[in-house]
């Protein structure tokens, strides 16, 4: 993908030099994260199977329901556009997502778009939803309206998920970022609060089924961004869409479960199957319309 024309966002908090991996400190746990016992179990299973623990966890995203409110992260950070190449890329994707969603909100909703902040870190950092760590994968926290991204996750995209490398992985990385931004869009539109309220009185099965619809809609909204950005910049190169679809397929619940336990339990899905994730990204990309992303409609999935 060609991203030189993208505006660089300064809504970034760079904590890569202040997290546990940088300082050598230990990882204390806060509310909303995996307990240390859970991490040990995940680590042992991962070691036995020879796979990355993030794949077992399935890219857990902390779009959590009501709970104890926490203050905004106190971890020291640098704010603004990072100077390094990886930071520049993240800032460019975030900046273009801000511009495209600003246009969409103005045109379709007659209102201003308030962009999220994006926190990049290594190892672990404090979030408004609890302690964030590498094993959780990228996630959006609605309590502080921040996207959290341990940049080592991009290494896993290259090594584990689709076998791409270097520049060929960039659109897959952009898909991951804009999926999380999609959760922020859901939050601004009032979708996440309604889902979270409904989930409070649901069984685990129904709660998971509703969460799948949330995740698939975020995939679709990432596709909406890609369509709008392509119309603006003609930034896509041959193979980009295929790489993103391959990434979407690789992190489908069915494929992850088959890899880790040898069988699939649809009732435990939280993100959707590989086919569903590809289908909904394509639905958003086809016309670039938010109205095409109604994963909550009857018969949608």
Mean pLDDT: 77
Percentage of residues in strands: 5-15%
Shape: globular
Q: What structural class do helix, strand and pairing data support?
A: alpha/beta
List low-pLDDT spans. Answer: 23-74, 252-261, 263-269
- The tally of beta strands, per DSSP, is 7
Q: Order of helices and strands, N to C?
A: EHHHEHEEEEEHHHHHHH
Number of helices, where a helix is a run of at least 4 consecutive DSSP H or I residues: 11
Taking the sheet with the most strands, its summary is: 5 strands, mixed
| Helix share, percent | 40-55%
- The radius of gyration over CA amounts to 18 Å
How far is the N terminus from the C terminus? 30 Å
Strand line-up in the sheet with most strands:
2-1-3-7-6
Number of domains: 1
Describe, in short, the structure shown.
This protein is an alpha/beta fold. 50% of the residues lie in helices and 9% in strands. The protein has one domain.
Q: Can you describe what's shown?
A:
The chain is α/β, with parallel strands linked by helices and about 300 residues long. The chain has helices at about 20-25, 35-50, 55, 85-110, 155-160, 170-190, 190-200, 205-235, 240-250, 255-260, 275-285, and strands at about 10-15, 80, 115-120, 125, 130-135, 140, 145-150. The protein has one domain (about 10-295). Helices cover about 50% and strands about 10% of the residues. The chain has a five-stranded mixed β-sheet, with helices on one face. It has a two-stranded antiparallel sheet with strand order 4-5. A hairpin with a 4-residue loop joins β6 and β7. α4 (about 85-110) crosses α6 (about 170-190), α6 (about 170-190) packs across α9 and α8 (about 205-235) packs parallel to α11 (about 275-285). The longest helix is centred in the last third of the chain and has 30 residues, at about 205-235. The chain is globular, with a radius of gyration of 18 Å. It starts with 11 loop residues before the first strand and ends in a 14-residue tail after the last helix.
